[in-house]
Amino acid sequence: MFKTLIIMKILVCISNVPDTTSKITFTDNNTAFNSNGIQYIINPYDEIALAKAVELAEGGNASVTVINVGDQSTEPTIRKALAVGADEAVRINAAPRDAWFVANQIANYVKENPVDLILTGRESIDYNGTQVTAIVAELLNLPSVSIAKKLTINNNEATIEREIEGGKEVVSTSLPVVVGTAEGVAEPKIPNMRGIMSARTKPLNVIEPIDVTVLSKITGYESPTPRGAVTLVDAGNVDELVNLLHSKAKVI
Amino acid sequence: MSILVYVENIEGDFKKSAFEVVSYAKAIADQTGDSLTAISIGQVADENLSKLGNYGASKVLNVQNEQLKNFVNKAYGSILAEAAKSEQAKVVVLSNSFSGKGLAPRIATKLNAALADGAIELPEISGDTFKLKKSAFSSKAFATEELTTAVKVIAVNPNSYEVKETGGSATIESFTPSLNQDDFSVIVKEIVRATDKISLPEAEIVVSAGRGLKGPENWGIIEELAEVLGAATACSKPVSDADWRPHSEHVGQTGIVVSPNLYIAIGISGAIQHLAGVSSSKTIVVINKDPEAPFFKVADYGIVGDAFEVVPKLTEALKKFKNS
Ligand SMILES: Cc1cc2nc3c(=O)[nH]c(=O)nc-3n(C[C@H](O)[C@H](O)[C@H](O)COP(=O)(O)OP(=O)(O)OC[C@H]3O[C@@H](n4cnc5c(N)ncnc54)[C@H](O)[C@@H]3O)c2cc1C
Question: What is the pTM of this model?
Answer without folding.
Answer: 0.93
